[in-house]
Amino acid sequence: MDSKAEILEETLETLLKGEGLEMREFDSVPEQVKPVILRKSVCYIVSGVIFNSKDEVLMVQEAKRECYGRWYLPAGRMEERESILEALQREVKEEAGIDCQPITLLMVQEQGPKWVRFVILAEEKGGSLKTTAEADSESLQAQWWDRESPLPLRAPDVLPLIEAGIKYRRNPSFPTLKPVDLPCHVICQRLFVTFISSNGSNEPRLWLLLSSNDATPHPSLPIAVSVDTYNTIPWAAHRLIKECIPSSSIHVQTCGILGVQHNGRIPGKTDGICFNMLVLLENLEDGAEISSPPPLEGDAYRWHDVTNPSLKAKIIQRIKEKSVLPVQSL
């Protein structure tokens, strides 16, 4: 195996482990891109799903005027210079009075690049529940909820998040995943674009879309920037595929997230996020089995045939079992 193939396989293994890679030149940019700025051009929310030994979930009573007295998961906006996990620990401490240890990201929800919520499963690690005597502008009190007793909720959107936490604790559908501390100045996706073909045998072939970017000396996955305020984050993958594959019979399926990269230490310069996204292309045409991936337009990208049996099996398994962090466009 040559050195380039070895580097590519190492890259793919790194991403499959939920780890990160340093940013490089972008491949798909629809217009001039400016760095995102936290709480100005982007808003990141953290929300904690925390259970006790009785399977009760941590809830806080709101102090905000518009939802005063109602209950919600501990949650809030990230602040400057915070990591995603630091923001969670701060919010849980301020609103619920307890210390927590993050276990894994559970879900990413978004309304386009301007609003992203990170739902995180965590566990209690000390402190004590906030009482009404400690009420402040952050919350009125906190309590463990058995999910059966009546509780006036601020909004029902927390119920699927709690259910996701319950399911993950019982049967994890993807490996534990925490954000990786790597800087990025925009919101973008490193696209792990796959195509599975059959040549009539029982053994499928797995193809991977690679960038032909001259600025990168080694084989690399394409990176697409999210800039449209109104389009959802996964739309960047659709835009890139439309750029390089003119066929209208290709369906783009965003499977989910393999990793999240964020730093945020330098306000206005590292407030961006890179999502390492697993994507599957499917041919919708009826008829004979497809033995090769769809032809590409131009020379900006190329297809790579993944021949390492172990790596290929690992990728296909992640696709079939949907073993990825879910991303929801609200």
TrEMBL record:
Keywords from the UniProt entry: Hydrolase, Magnesium, Manganese, Metal-binding
Co-factor requirement: Mn(2+); Mg(2+)
One Pfam assignment: NUDIX
PROSITE patterns: NUDIX (PS51462), NUDIX_BOX (PS00893)
Gene3D superfamilies reported for this sequence: Nucleoside Triphosphate Pyrophosphohydrolase
EC number: 3.6.1.58
Origin superkingdom: Eukaryota
Record has Magnesium as a keyword: yes
An example molecular function term from Gene Ontology annotations: 8-oxo-dGDP phosphatase activity
Domain Nudix hydrolase: 41-166
Catalytic class of the enzyme: hydrolase
Catalytic activity: 8-oxo-GDP + H2O = 8-oxo-GMP + phosphate + H(+); 2-oxo-dADP + H2O = 2-oxo-dAMP + phosphate + H(+); 8-oxo-dGDP + H2O = 8-oxo-dGMP + phosphate + H(+); 8-oxo-dADP + H2O = 8-oxo-dAMP + phosphate + H(+)
Function: Mediates the hydrolysis of oxidized nucleoside diphosphate derivatives. Hydrolyzes 8-oxo-7,8-dihydroguanine (8-oxo-Gua)-containing deoxyribo- and ribonucleoside diphosphates to the monophosphates. Hydrolyzes 8-oxo-dGDP and 8-oxo-GDP with the same efficiencies. Also hydrolyzes 8-OH-dADP and 2-OH-dADP. Exhibited no or minimal hydrolysis activity against 8-oxo-dGTP, 8-oxo-GTP, dGTP, GTP, dGDP and GDP. Probably removes oxidized guanine nucleotides from both the DNA and RNA precursor pools.
Entry similarity comment: Belongs to the Nudix hydrolase family.
Name the UniProt record assigns to this protein: 8-oxo-dGDP phosphatase NUDT18
